[in-house]
Amino acid sequence: MEDDVNQSPSNMVPVALAVFGIVLGGAGLYFGLTANQRLNPIHESVEAGSSSSARIEKQISGFDTQIAELAAQASEQSKTISRLRVYSSQGEQAVKKLAAELNANREQIVKTAEKLNEFAAAGFRAAPAPKAATSPASAQAPSAPATPGATTTYTIVSGDTFGKIATKAGVSVQAIIDANPDADPRRLSIGQAIHIPAQ
Question: What three-state secondary structure class fits 193?
Fold first, then answer.
């Protein structure tokens, strides 16, 4: 009996160690499972963060593409604005040149009108009608022939046409046209001198 009692403490150490090992293993298993349960949400959160980061990178890449397209469009618009400025400058130069030419034409027209007035004032007036005619028709005629085969000069007044002048003078329109080959019947001007042929 004494031997059993003496041997039991030494036999108890391996048993205690075994029990202690089992307890430690159980505790380790428990803590491992608990840690795994706690790590699963963290792992899922990290994966979600990873996919979110990938989406953000994709969006950033899309923004980079849009920025590059906008930069290209801005460059094209800048070129267009430059061309429009050149066209505008050329248009302004053309308008200035046209204005200068119009002013020169206006001055030339004024000078021509002044010369025409001087030419008309130099004595190109209608010849006085002879007083030999006594009929009212011949009295209304602005210029009657002085002698057969002679022509008289008539000055155009407002409203005159070759037809009216021919009626007043008692000659045909064709005779007036033939006597004035340089005159345009459609463009008679006041103060213009024409020849009236004799009847």
Answer: strand
Is the CA virtual torsion 45, 46, 51, 57 positive or negative?
positive
Instruction: State what percent of residues in the chain have pLDDT above 70.
Output: 78
Q: HEC profile for 123-184?
A: CCCCCCCCCCCCCHHHHHCCCCCCCCCCEEEEECCCCCCHHHHHHHHCCCHHHHHHHCCCCC
| pLDDT computed for residue 6 by the predictor | 52
> pTM value?
0.29
> 180, 83, 76, 148: which is closest to 192 by C-alpha?
180
Q: Which stretch of 32-41, 57-66, 86-95, 102-111 has the lowest confidence by average pLDDT?
A: 32-41
| Angle subtended at Cα 54 by Cα 51 and Cα 57, rounded to the nearest 5 degrees | 155
d(CA 146, CA 132): 9
CA–CA separation, 120 vs 157, rounded Å? Answer: 12
Return the DSSP state at 197.
E
Query: Cα–Cα distance between 46 and 185 in angstroms, integer?
Result: 103
Mean pLDDT on 74-101: 88
What is the rounded CA–CA span in Å between residue 122 and residue 120?
5
